[in-house]
Amino acid sequence: MVFASIACSILGVIISRMNLSSIGFTMSHAAFAGAAIGMFLEINPQMTAIFFSVAVAALIGPVSDKAKMAADATLGVLFAMSMAVAIFLVSYMQYSGRGLSAGSLLFGNVISLYREDIYALAAVSALTIIFVLTFYKEITSIMFNMKIAEASGVRVKLIYYILLFIVAISVSLTLNIVGGLLIFVLLVTPASIASQFCFNVRSMFIAAPLVALSISAFGVWAGFEYTLPIAPLVALLLTSVFGVSVLVSFKRRINYKKY
Amino acid sequence: MSIIELEGIYTAYEGGDKPVIRGLSLSVNPGEYVVIGGPNSAGKTTLLESINGLVRITHGTASVCGLDLRRYGNEVRRKVGYVIQNFYFDPFTPFTVEEVVMMGRYGKMGLLNRPTRSDREAATEAIRLLGIEDLASKTIGTLSGGQQQKTMIAHNIAKEPEVLMLDEPFSNLDFNAREYLQGVFKSVAKKGTPVLLVSHAFDGLPDIRIHLVVMNKGRITYDGVCDAGEVESIIRKESGGGLRSSSF
């Protein structure tokens, strides 16, 4: 959960600024569909989740470019396709008596992780941090304005495609823990909370993972202590904190003195 | 030797049923102050975006800063400063003026390179030149339209471009600011960097010889040198017998 929080919340800062928040549910449902394909074919669902997510991620940029559509619209199309594939397979397996429950894919299972899963998540967190540190100036430039970045000679497409790839990998590995539906919360909500208080992007990159980490840790503790489902609990906690932060944010306050 | 050399270029947007620019030829030398005028939809913005490689040239030859534009678009963009026409930054945009100005150099620096002392000095100098030192630590979304405009000009000047192109840079500015900026552009041109200016406001043009280009329906209808005072009358004349009120 720690590694998932770090990776998703850092990526969330980038995608929410780029108005690509829907990449969260598209990729999470692509991972969901990939995992369903794995279960249907009786092969490792995590591998198929990664494969299918990367394939979908690889389509977003070129399809948007070719169709001259906003990436958000392409994400909507791919989301619907992924969801349809997943529901089709899950329903088919249920009808045919293979008894697949979508519950573990939708809501995740924090307590039944293998050591390899944890190593993979640590690697994804490290990859995300290295990506942001290495391409910090290009990423911030794109976050500011894609057209202006391109006009300045920044390699916008290269960075954009790497970003999609890393989101795909992170989401598909995180699927096991928080589940397809709730990854979206980790991608979007910590960044949204940070945006209520941070005036510059550097502090957002620090605040978002700290928020995600502390709330996730608290959620895991409370889940064990009071025998509650951890992933939905963390999602509800993050959403509550977001609600409170909107109410108390000082960024929208008018700070002038009457002389 | 010309720094921009366009020969019979055509450009078209995907899905468009006719080219936006048709058989256009233009030559710009170092240090020239080029004013591009003409009615709306004449192709002025498309011309700037073609020179910057943002719009694909379908036919003809184009060389900018000694590079074949059709092959080295990104390399050209690293050398050319381009202030785009329309931008809006919401109040929550988490970037300060200082950061935005520095971003102007990011393409030039190349991948993986960090800003050096000379990059920081160039950004500071651009901020000073535009007179926005007191705004440096403010977030860009909290500024007025005119202040954002100045920030974006500083963003491009910090780049130390080999060509500076500006699309309607005076749209949010009062007369004093326009006159001040014309002085800034004149000093840029004096140092040998050609300035290409698309504008509908000709007051305060610097008192130097102007390379005037008038466009209409994707073609150049006038390409010559004149005094600042003649610019508006030539544009009116060359834009097809008087401009419609919507054009200015």
TrEMBL record, chain B:
Keyword Phosphoprotein set for record: no
Entry keywords, A to Z: ATP-binding, Nucleotide-binding, Transport
Pfam families, per database record: ABC_tran (PF00005)
GO MF assignments: ATP binding
Highest taxon listed in the record's lineage: Archaea
UniProt keyword annotation of Transport present: yes
UniProt-listed InterPro entries: AAA+_ATPase, ABC_transporter-like_ATP-bd, Metal_Ion_Import_ABC, P-loop_NTPase
Domain ABC transporter residue range list: 4-242
Identification of the protein by name: ATP-binding cassette domain-containing protein
